[in-house]
Amino acid sequence: QQQVKQSPQSLIVQKGGISIINCAYENTAFDYFPWYQQFPGKGPALLIAIRPDVSEKKEGRFTISFNKSAKQFSLHIMDSQPGDSATYFCAASISTNAGKSTFGDGTTLTVKP
Amino acid sequence: KAGVTQTPRYLIKTRGQQVTLSCSPISGHRSVSWYQQTPGQGLQFLFEYFSETQRNKGNFPGRFSGRQFSNSRSEMNVSTLELGDSALYLCASSRRRAANEQFFGPGTRLTVL
After folding, report:
1. Residue A1, pLDDT above cutoff 60
2. Which of A93, A84, A88 is nearest to B58 (CA)?
3. Interface test with B, best of A101, A103, A107 (most B CBs within 10 A)
4. A108 and chain B in contact, CB less than 8 A
5. Which distant-in-sequence residues (6+ apart) come within 8 Å of B29 by Cβ?
6. DSSP character at residue A97
7. Bridge partner list, B5
8. In chain A, what residues touch B101 (CB-CB under 8 Å)?
9. What is the DSSP secondary structure assignment for residue A15, as one 8-state letter?
10. For residue range A25-73, what is the model confidence (pLDDT) as tens digits?
């Protein structure tokens, strides 16, 4: 049973465009939803995270939108740059079980110059 | 502050052998989690340690084990290696008060021949 479903699997965006990656979860006990960015040969790096008491969080060009009733959340990358080309993972965890994160399958983003 | 370090970075073993991987968390972080990353299965949770105690365990066979030392450094061991154990093994650390916020190391790339 896949608890966190991520789409699309791959995404190609022009420089300056908006990249949107979506995730859906099943377990309503999840209360922490981070996004990670991973470059080849590196470990995932925490990008931005949200808790279900807010519907949106913005940090620079990165925004998380959260829809609790639909059990969905998404990452928006504004003004996408070639340096943003990486694999992005959504994840979810439960605060009482915080060291265990459940990850989506990842989205490979390519930003064309 | 130094990040999470993992040693070795690359390892080649043959079937049936055993392997030990090491992880040093960020200074002050007491929680260490291990994940296996493969192209087919994505990021899968192995186990989590806090204060030298295993707090969570994923759905992996008993060949996978770990431990944590009093200085929060952690090791994971895989015995009787199988071809399917070839993967990137990632370690993540977090602070007790923000345990959801995980910081990943670069990983150990294990190849089983």
Report:
1. no
2. A93
3. A101
4. no
5. B72, B93, B94, B95, B103
6. G
7. B24
8. 34, 46, 49
9. T
10. 999 999 999 999 999 989 999 999 999 999 999 999 999 999 999 999 9
Q: What is the mean pLDDT of residues A89-104?
A: 91
Strand partners of residue B22: B7, B75
Counting as low any pLDDT under 70, the low residues of chain B are 1, 97-98
Residue B72 CA to residue A3 CA, distance in Å, equals 30
On the CB side of A110, CA atoms within 13 Å amount to 5
Q: Does B25 touch chain A (CB under 8 A)?
A: no
Q: Is A30 on the interface with B (CB under 8 A)?
A: no
Task: Take residue B42 and report the two structure tokens written for it.
Answer: 């994505």
More confident residue, A19 or A98: A19
Q: How far is residue B85's CA from residue A73's CA, in Å, rounded to a whole number?
A: 32
Q: Where are the beta strands (DSSP E) in B1-113?
A: 5-7, 10-13, 19-24, 31-38, 42-50, 53-57, 64-68, 74-78, 87-94, 103-104, 108-112
